[in-house]
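[Meeting: bench + compute handoff]

Bench side (C.D.) handed over the final construct sequence. Compute side (W.E.) agreed to return the predicted structure before the next meeting so the bench team could plan truncations. Sequence as handed over:
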Amino acid sequence: MKWQNRRGRLCSLPVNFAIRQHIDFTVHTGEPGVVMQSGHIMVGTHEGVYIIKLIGDVRLDLCTSFDSFTEDMIGQDDFVGVAFDLHEAHGIDSTTLGLIAKIAICTLERGCQKPLVFCSDQGIRHLFDAMGFNALVEISDEQYEPSAQTIPLECRIPSEHAAREKVLEAHRVLMSMNERNAETFHDLVHTLEQECERLGNTSTHPQ
């Protein structure tokens, strides 16, 4: 699957990146345990509406911290909805997309309205359309000015096991959305399931 980015170049959905990176990625940090990455996430809340702002190139090295925050968010008694501000996002990998889909599904299950996605990048918008997100979110190219102040989400380096499990979960969510996604991510999910099973058996029965 390919789409045009803002510079007019074709970009491929980073499935191979996810396979490689969930096993081995290098992070340079100036502070123990804190990830340094080209992308980051800002979060805030106002009267039960949560704002999630993705900035730069958001990839799976943020996935476990992002998912932990959103699980806590959806579990809050005052939660009434969520808005994603993607105006400053330059790229989003498939793991992050899967977590956005998970948030949208959980939001709808709570009886809330579809999450709002504010994005003017035509490449990212096309990606959302191609993967069937129109059933889960409302997308707008309007400039978003949140009522709440956003602060950086502290993202820590996930363990190899945690990253692998989160990549697998995110891609299972994408597969559940429609037949096209199921076909696109079938091989990746099958590979990850085999790895998780193999490594689980290895840890259970050490040599």
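W.E. noted at the follow-up: The chain has six helices and nine strands. C.D. will use this when planning the next construct.
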